[in-house]
Task: inverse folding
């Protein structure tokens, strides 16, 4: 199973995964503290900037309460560095068998991205039971997820939807039993991080976590 049970349980308990684009690794620790103040303790640092791995190292060292994963994993080299830097898990926007093999070889808990029934089946065949559903809203949102997952619901596959989700539709996603947790870039947008608007980030997290508690009884 590519996403081990301990990490899967942690992500499910969190309910939210803050998806982060960090341009300056110096922002990593104050950002982590702002997320924690708002009640969010699970993050995906995306490899969309060169600062991501250094940000991970800083958070691992100075904000160990955070469960920090790496996202936008596209190559086996990304898997190796994520493992070497101590990432708790990795996720990808798509399904790439070569990257999946690397995650298995390096024993990194990993969730590939899917958008079609064929990709769900390919991932399931490779023992993946936790999948990233991306880009969620562009594909048709929760309605599409329910439809595409219907033939596989009995298999216990769980999804982390990401893409176009906000405070407006968060509750609907969380109420679906196939959703393990929701990925959210709106919690700490790239602009808010660059502006060092830590108070606003904390407030966004508090607002979102109140919905998680309402739905899941946290």
Result:
């Amino acid at each position: 199973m590519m996403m081990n049970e301990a990490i899967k349980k942690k992500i499910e308990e969190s309910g939210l995964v803050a998806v982060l684009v960090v341009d300056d690794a110096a922002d990593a620790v104050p950002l982590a503290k702002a997320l924690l103040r708002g009640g969010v303790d699970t993050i995906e640092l995306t490899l969309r900037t060169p600062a991501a791995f250094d940000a991970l190292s800083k958070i691992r060292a100075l904000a160990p309460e955070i469960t920090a994963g790496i996202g936008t994993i596209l190559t086996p080299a990304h898997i190796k560095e994520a493992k070497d830097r101590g990432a708790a898990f990795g996720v990808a926007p798509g399904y790439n068998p070569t990257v999946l093999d690397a995650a298995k070889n390096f024993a990194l808990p990993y969730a590939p991205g899917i958008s079609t029934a064929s990709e769900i089946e390919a991932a399931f065949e490779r023992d993946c039971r936790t999948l990233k559903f991306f880009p969620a809203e562009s594909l048709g949102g929760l309605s599409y997820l329910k439809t595409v997952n219907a033939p596989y619901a009995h298999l216990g596959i769980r999804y982390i939807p990401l893409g176009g989700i906000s405070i407006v539709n968060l509750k609907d996603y969380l109420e679906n039993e196939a959703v393990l947790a929701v990925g959210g870039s709106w919690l700490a947008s790239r602009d808010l991080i660059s502006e060092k608007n830590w108070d606003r980030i904390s407030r966004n997290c508090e607002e979102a976590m109140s919905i998680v508690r309402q739905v899941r009884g946290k």
